[in-house]
Fold:
Amino acid sequence: MKRINIILLLAGLLAACSDWLDVRPQTEKIKEELFDTQKGFEDALVGAYIRLKGDNAYGNALSWGTIEYMAQHWDVTTANSISALSNLKRYEYANAYVEVWMSGMYQELYRVIADVNSILERIDDRRDIFDQGVREMIKGEALALRAFCHLDVLRLFGPIPGTASDEPVLPYVKTVSNVIREHSSYQQFTRALLDDLDEAESLLGEVDPIRAYSITELNSSVDNGGVISTGNDFQAYRQVRMNYLAALAIRARFHLWMQDKAEAGRYAQMVIEAADRNGNSIFRLGTQGDMTLEDFTASTEHIFALAIHDLAARAESRFGQQGSYIKQDFDYYLGQLFPAAERTVDIRFALWIPKQTDNTYKILKKFIQRDSRPILQLPLVRLSEMYLIRAECAATIEEANAAYAPFAIAKGIPFSGFSSEQDRESKIIREYNREFYAEGQGFFTYKRLNAASILWAAYPIVGSPAVYVAPLPTREIEYHNK
Structure:
């Protein structure tokens, strides 16, 4: 029988953080003690969020690192290990270095899953230790995080949408164990993922204050009639937690991947229309005013982000003048994304990509932080994605244009609308590349649409599993084939 052996590390043993936004826990507790108190469950969940920030996860590889080389968003000027993925060569997944990078992402996603599984295995047996609503909050976040990580495992290592067979694909892991695990079929995997999102939506929908309070109120820990408890970070700072609206947004992303446009569009619309108790939108699209204030990632759009205390240093080392992530000449490359007529008005080109003294464009300012009150959030899901999903999923071109117009206006795009289905798909691909440059969504967009070519690849690439389906780590393949 085909099986896979996943060594899942119980990394939820994280406790005694004076502030859950800290980069590392200050002490560790043994497993038996950790889940004796509400605080222990909270700290275990903190551990999962901390792991999400690691270099093999969204602190590098799955945001602006490896996954962006796969989208051809960075240049390689000399043949080296990274050129096995990027523009000097084809997608050489068999390259030893590439195997290490793929394995690192795979393992780290499953380690986050192990973190939340350690919580989910115990939380229902300890109902008596929780304050009102806290168990539902923690369990809902853990379920949504489990679904979020499994979805990215599927998007990276699973089949191209619409091509799945009944063969086993990947394990959907719900327990903490080092036993050999069977692969689930595509249908089993996606059903389990949807079940997690269903339950997360139900639990968080009952207790998450983001359904009623503005981001400003939540970030101020204001006590509003006892709903938001002053000093309770689990009820505040909901943008950097897997909140109720983030769970809905992940569901929109999931249904889009599953080619269920009706459900994808419906959930995207729910997020777009989400309002606080006063009728004001919870999130809004970023505008020129935000970027002029050096809020380059449009924090008003952050549905789910990671709080990273050293983001300024990370960004400078990667995107500054001596940074490692560059396009040799953005003026040439991004000319294929930003037509000359749009460059002075599209706020992303005008404010993200500064001209150098030699009149070229080589660096990206998106994550560079302002000196006063930096916004130390790395977005994983933004409102702009919901607008693009709604535009892609609209039943008619007219409805698609109506959905796309607010996005285009906010970004400064001269709006001409979609002229045909082919034009809609072409512009959707372009917008995912423009809007989410260095955020890890470009490659997944090409794969989801099974695009026949990838912009800036050195060779013509015909959409195929050889390009779009990253192979499992060698060790996992060996176990799977036993």
In short: The longest strand covers residues 302-307. Residues 166 and 187 are 8 Å apart (CA to CA). The mean pLDDT is 85. The chain has 19 helices and six strands.
